[in-house]
Design goal:
It contains twelve helices and eleven strands. The relative contact order is 0.12. It is about 40% helix and about 15% strand. Strand 7 and strand 8 form a beta hairpin. By secondary structure, the chain is of the alpha/beta class. Helix 5 runs antiparallel to helix 6. The protein is globular, with a radius of gyration of 20 Å.
Length: about 260
């Protein structure tokens, strides 16, 4: 990786004016636009839907399946993949076709600045990256909440089956940052399936839900009025795009979680 950065630094800015990028992650796509290089993106996955301009860019597949032929035809200078997020088998195949594939890591809040730094170096946007990182660090520090006793929080990713997220998720990081504790943080699976009985046993004071849940999700919880979260009607949807993707908008998701948790005091 160091060698790649050294090579990039030796390339004159004029040589980078016409880079063609195929991007295999909504997070990376959004961050490239935030750096002012969105017009270099010539291929995207179907889930990449922000900002609105990206909708005019050719779709080359989705998380499960990539159209290698379409990617090759786009003749990209780089194919940017989310390390650990895109299926490694597909990435290895793209490399076997001679494509210049770069894996970029980004799984936690603290890794967002590192991802922006790497993208800034690759795309000759180091000044833009530095500005975004400064803003990110300032906003994240200003939103931190310290409490004597963290509030018990259950995050409902889906309802049938009942799914949640463990401590390795950005949602859980945001909950901790805002003075809460994810009641299923210690589960080994990233997105464990849990039972109603297990949720009842942990008696959360707050239930947060993905905005992908059906509209009647709150009504479904009313059959358990003895739960602290239900008794006090602490049931809120959050914008899942903010916290399921690692971008500058993740800060908006953190702010949303902090604002909700502040209502419990």
């Amino acid at each position: 990786m160091l060698l790649r950065f050294l090579i990039i630094l030796l390339i004159p800015a004029s040589a980078l004016a016409d880079l063609r990028l195929v991007v295999l992650s909504p997070d990376l796509t959004e961050n490239i636009y935030a750096l002012g290089k969105g017009d270099w993106v010539v291929g995207r996955v179907s889930a990449a839907d922000y900002p609105e301009e990206i909708l005019d860019v050719q779709v080359i597949g989705d998380y499960q399946s990539l159209d290698a032929e379409a990617i090759v035809k786009l003749d990209p200078d780089y194919v940017l993949a989310w390390q650990g997020g895109n299926p490694e088998r597909q990435l290895t195949y793209l490399e076997s076709l001679g494509l210049n594939l770069i894996r970029i890591k980004g799984d936690t809040l603290t890794e967002i600045p590192a991802q922006l730094t790497e993208l800034g170096r690759l795309l000759n946007a180091e000044a833009e990256a530095s500005n975004l990182i400064a803003e990110f660090n300032r906003r994240l520090a200003s939103s931190a909440v310290k409490v004597k006793e963290p509030k018990r929080v259950f995050y409902q990713l889906w309802s049938d089956p009942m799914l949640t997220l463990n401590a390795q998720s950005v949602v859980s990081e945001a909950v901790d940052h805002c003075g809460g504790v994810n009641v299923f943080k210690d589960r080994p699976e990233m997105a464990p399936q849990v039972s109603i009985e297990s949720v009842i046993g942990l008696n959360p004071e707050l239930i947060l839900a993905s905005d992908g849940l059906p509209d009647a999700w709150q009504e479904a919880w009313q059959q358990w009025p003895f739960l602290d979260a239900v008794r006090h009607q602490n049931l809120y949807k959050i914008n899942s795009d903010y916290l399921h993707r690692l971008t500058m908008r993740t800060l908006d998701g953190v702010d949303e979680v902090c604002e909700i948790l502040s209502r419990l005091d």
